[in-house]
Hints:
Blueprint: H1 9-33, H2 35-55, H3 68-97, H4 100-106, H5 111-139, H6 148-176, H7 182-194, H8 207-214, H9 217-229, H10 239-242, H11 244-268
GO molecular function: ABC-type transporter activity
Organism: Micromonospora echinofusca
Keywords: Antibiotic resistance, Cell membrane, Membrane, Transmembrane, Transmembrane helix, Transport
Amino acid sequence: MSATSVRPVPRRLRWAVADGVTLTGRAVAHWRRQPGQFVVGLLFPVLMVLMFGYLFGGAMSVPGGGDYREFLLPGMFAMTMLFGIESTYAAVATDAARGVTDRFRSLPMASSAVLAGRATADLLHSAAGLAVMLACGVAVGWQWRSGVPAALGAVGLLLLLRFALIWVGIHLALVLRRPESVVMLQILVWPLGFTSNAFVSPDTMPGWLAAVAAWNPLSATVAACRHLFANPGAGGDTFPAQHAVALAVAWPLLLIAVFVPLAVRRYRRLGR
C-alpha cells in the first residue's frame, strides 16, 4: 500500500488543495507569458457587443419595449460564459496531446488536483472576462436597475454556469484529446448560443424553435439575469420564463452532477 493511500483524510485534503493551487498558478503563469492570447480572449466578447449592439441593434425590437442594448447585454454576459468552453477544451486537450497530463499522473500529487486546478484557473479567467464585459456594458449605456444584492446574484449565476461548462469542456477534451477538434466543439457551441434568448426573444421564433430556446440552459441564465438586473425582456407566460432563477441554478447543478464524475473517471482511465 502506498504512503499516499494511508494518509489521514485531513492531510490528503490539505495536499490536494495545495496541489490544485499549484496547478492553478501554472495556468496563470502561462497567461503572463502569453498575454496576447489572454487579452484577445477578453476582448472578443466586447467586439460581439459592439457588432450586435450597434450594427444590428437598430433593426431589433424588444417585446414590451425598452432599449435593445439593455436587452442584449445579459445575453452577451451568458454568451461569454459559453464561449469559454472552447478555451477550456483547447487547454486540456493540448496538455493531453503533448503528454503533459500523463506526466502529471506520474507525479506524487492528488489525482483531483489537475482537474481542480484547471477548473479554478478557467473560472478566474472567466471572472476577469465578465468584469471586462460589465465595464463594456456600462460604457455603451447598459445599467442594472435593481439593487447591488440582486446584481451580485446575477453575476453569481453567470459564474455558476461557467463553472458547469468548464467541466463539460474538461470531459470532452479528455475524451477526444485532440486540440484541433475544437472546431467540432464550435459546431455545437454556436448553435446552442444562437438558439437561446440571448439575442432575440423566443416569442419572435416559430413555435417549435421557441420551445427549444425557452428550455435552453443558456436561456435560463439569461432570463434570470434580465430579471435580477431589471433589464428589458424579463418575465413571460411560459414556465421557463416564470421560473428563470430556479432553472438558472438547476441546469448548471445538473451539468456539474453529470460531468464532474465523468471527467474524473475519464482522467483516471487515461492510458488504459
